[in-house]
Amino acid sequence: MTQGWSARDIPDQSGRTAVVTGANSGIGLVTARELARKGAHVVLACRSEARGKEAEALINRQVYGASVEFAPLDLADLSSVRAFAESFPHAHLDLLINNAGVMALPYGKTADGFERQFGVNHLGHFALTGLLLPRLRAAPAGRVVSVSSGLHALSDLDLADLNSERRYRRWIAYARSKTANLLFVHELARQLRSAGSTVVAAAAHPGYASTNLQTAGARMEGRRAAERLAELGNRLLAQPAETGALPTLYAATAPSVRPDSFTGPRLQGWRGAPTRSARAKWTLNDATGERLWVASEELTGVRYGL
């Protein structure tokens, strides 16, 4: 990878259609904006219509001639995921960026009864990718990028307790959901290869980037001291969202990206230009990936048919 790779190095995206989940703020907003700047038509898949429309207007102000549209998507509700896929108006999809996520929230459940972090971060995107896969395969060079985290290294999956029903620890649950992202990419890449598909499945992570993820959990619980500490960390230690989005943009657009690759910041995985990232060995375990895949199909009702 080029040491100084930046958004300026994104190849021309004219004629390509992209979906970015969670595109209303942070990494997702920057990702959507820079893809639009390079000519892609970008679907802003967001839970909040108000925030999605605000992001659409902001990108139109910042990028002359941008082609963006808001579409409602709530990853915590599989009926919303199905509705998004069924109403998707484009015959092909060149790029799906599974960016949206939640982090270290108090215990809660999705509309379908899944533990919230596992449900949103993994199962929602698993279902979305499966439902949109025919459109990705119809594209000449389809690509799926799932945004994980360096914090995946805190914990392997507990396949006997995917929904943290026995014991809930917010950071371990987050780490497991991010491990699930990497195992999903690992198994999807394997299945695509076996099916002879040219769709590339890859992963990325932003390092320590200043977004609203860090403060959301503390704010929900009214833990003001923890919220202020997270805000201070964002100001003093984190890189801006513009830099944090670079690994995702690289994984999404660089010609040399390989299936099942994991891209992150160059400097200790925290900040800097994108490069190949270290990953826990359990995220490359074929047996675990297969078992997670089977469980995910059963939980979501979405079958890939590869």
TrEMBL record:
CDD domains: retinol-DH_like_SDR_c_like (cd05327). It comes from Streptomyces noboritoensis. InterPro entries: NAD(P)-bd_dom_sf, SDR_fam. The keyword Nucleotidyltransferase does not apply. PANTHER family: PHOSPHATIDYLINOSITOL-GLYCAN BIOSYNTHESIS CLASS F PROTEIN (PTHR43157:SF31), PHOSPHATIDYLINOSITOL-GLYCAN BIOSYNTHESIS CLASS F PROTEIN-RELATED (PTHR43157). It comes from the Bacteria. Keywords: Oxidoreductase. Pfam families: adh_short. This is Oxidoreductase. Belongs to the short-chain dehydrogenases/reductases (SDR) family. Signal peptide: none annotated.
